[in-house]
Amino acid sequence: TxxxxxxxxxxxxxxNLLKAPSIIVLFLWMxxxxxMTLYFSVIRYNLLSTMDNGFExxxxxxFFMTDAAFMPAILNSLILVxxxxxVTIISGIILAVLIDRTFPGRGIVRVMLISPxxxxxxxxxxxxKNMFMNPVYGMFAFFSxxxxxxxxxWMSDYPLVSIIIMLSWQWTPFAxxxxxxxxxxxxxxxxxxAELDGAGFFAKFYYLTLPHLSRSIAxxxxxxxxxxxxxxxEILITTGGGPGNDGTNLTYxxxxxxxxxxxxxxxxxxxxxxxxxxNIVAYFLIKQVGKSLMA
Length: 295
Prior knowledge:
Blueprint: H1 2-41, E1 43-46, E2 49-55, H2 59-65, H3 70-98, H4 106-114, H5 121-132, H6 139-146, H7 154-157, H8 159-184, H9 188-196, H10 201-212, H11 214-228, H12 233-237, H13 250-260, H14 264-294
Antiparallel strand pairs: 1-2
Helix pairs in contact: 1-14, 2-14, 3-8, 3-11, 3-13, 5-8, 8-11, 11-14, 13-14
């Protein structure tokens, strides 16, 4: 017995030693940038006047949170996240239900529907900005002129709507892929029994399909929430945060302070605020998703 216990102890020790390097690297990977961000957030540090340094305390946080762009950035961040998630989930469910049946060319249709997800964010932004939403030679302008309507300058008149459209188009395939996979495991006998009882399409969808997709919906919400809190490339390429603060979100506001105003201290304070906000959202989100997965 002692020999077995000694062997198990040695085996456990060896396993811990083998895991230690990766754990240490991951820990340093997270703790070093976080420590530097915390440090710079409490000092006065501007790249244009590096000699004028000193302890600032909570002054950087106060300056960041009292900036005129702060509240619009927070509101725009929430609008973007919620709108994109709602649009992608609804669109993904509709498309997944429509293609969850056998028809000629089904494989090609699936590939075409999923392919936008693999386009890089910068390319996606340039595609929509120049090919679709340009008020002079874009496709939307062409159709407007065809029907005698005034073309819309999407980036200037509706900056948030423009970003929501292009990101929803790119992320709907992700939701579609998750829902499409989930529908493959749906019990077909229940659907057949419901049909025999006279249930129509909408009754089967509401009472069978939608409950079956609840876990998948929770996963899509969690993953998209994490990614869309840090939307940046699309805003930089298309609206540049404007006009005014109409197209600015929290990530772009931090970028403005860091790389346009060269104020590392204020940008670091914004980064700490974003980390706290993301962790608060993640805590409640994971809690709800956990309940959904355990149901």
